[in-house]
Amino acid sequence: MRRTSHQHGSLKLADRRKGKVWEFRWREVQIDGSVCRKNIVVGTLEEFPTESAAQSAVDAIRLTINRQTPQQLLKNVSVETLVKHYQEHELPDIFSKQKPATGSSDEHHKSYSTQYAYDIYLKKWVLPRWRSYRLSEVKAVDVEAWLKTMPLARGSRAKIRNLMSALFSHAIRWEWTERNPIKSVRQSAKHMRTPDVLTPEEFMALLKNLPEPLRTAAELDAFTGLRRGELIGLQWEDVDFENLVIHVRRSVVMMVQGAPKTEASAKDVPLDAALAESLLKLRLVGPYNRETDWVFASPTMKGKQPLWPETLWRRYGRPAVKAANIQKRVGFHTFRHTYTTFTDSEQRGSEGGTGAPTSCEQSHYAGSLRSGGNAEQTAGTKQTGSDGAQQGRSTGLTGPNWTMTQIANSLQVFERIGGDDGTRTRGLCRDRAAF
Fold first, then answer.
1. 382 pairs with which residues across the strands?
2. Residues 432, 220: Cα–Cα separation, whole Å
3. What would the pLDDT profile of 85-132 be if each residue is shown by its tens digit?
4. Disulfide check for 202: which of 10, 24, 198, 430 has CB 3.0–4.6 Å away?
5. Of 326, 321, 341, 312, nearest to 225 (Cα)?
6. Which DSSP category does 429 fall into?
7. E-assigned strands of 207-355?
8. CB burial class (10 A; 0-12, 13-18, 19+) of residue 164?
């Protein structure tokens, strides 16, 4: 293929049915030597009111069409041009201003929510500071000093640092530079303040003041550790009441369906009987209870979309926090932090740490329990076989292998898994008196 010289192309205003648009034209030499003329609409006159603004948008296109041009013929790329090229190729949904279709996924593309966040970071922080810099002019010490002056949390600064590193990796991949100065930038992501978590007493007091479906959503989030997108992305077909398990199959963020955030997030989450009972009651009283309906369906959208939890939290959650006299900053993510604290405490106790395992309220997490453990976990009166099955049916659950253990005011619910010896069980403990 004959290599073309560096093309500058031509930019001009063109008339369309919807008004005037900026049109960029260039040519490509084909394998057989013929010349093919190309053109693309850059944007409308409203988006780019001046020719200089349109030319800045075209710079990223020029980099693409001149990718076969020897490097020495290319001018040193500016950060602004690199950002626009990165947006076009790595943030395609935001660049094209279209939300991805449901079910469409590309392992090489970031999720829509990630693209949206990256676009905000680029426009609000990166471009205002580094827009006019050439890639060779960006120094690690300058970026590090700039990050220190930003009025953001360390975690947000670390994200901006990593995004700038991704920009330079993008430039290296397209052979516009040979170095990534951001790799030498130091930026901690450590929390500036410890996230607030709820004690079992605070959480129980909060639940009493929450209306449905927010109450069940908070309960499910705190006792399973689901992310907010995975929580509102649940459909009734994902909740297996018979086997006490939740199948995490999707995540809904900004009303866009996608895959769970990580491979670990897509694993099944066990339920305890009391939590399954809360979900079953919600399904029985709700108008949207078909298998394909959302667990937390939006009534204003007639069940076609899930509820946005932040809307419910502003309306009902914040007043409930005040009513429970909780002097902490509580949001939906607080429940996930609380779940992590409970599980860490239980794991430290079960792994031979100092002190006994935590109470039933604190050990509210999904896992496998083995017989022959601590006496505190196994002591009590057990109901097995038909008695256990009857107790399971009384809460709307089915299954022949229920094992119920009563310890004071706490009720432990297990289901046998595997062989007849019943050495492996699944289940959780739950303080029934607290509810």
1. 405
2. 16
3. 999 899 988 888 888 776 556 666 788 888 999 999 999 999 999 998
4. 198
5. 341
6. E
7. 239-240, 245-246, 251-253, 256-258, 269-270
8. buried
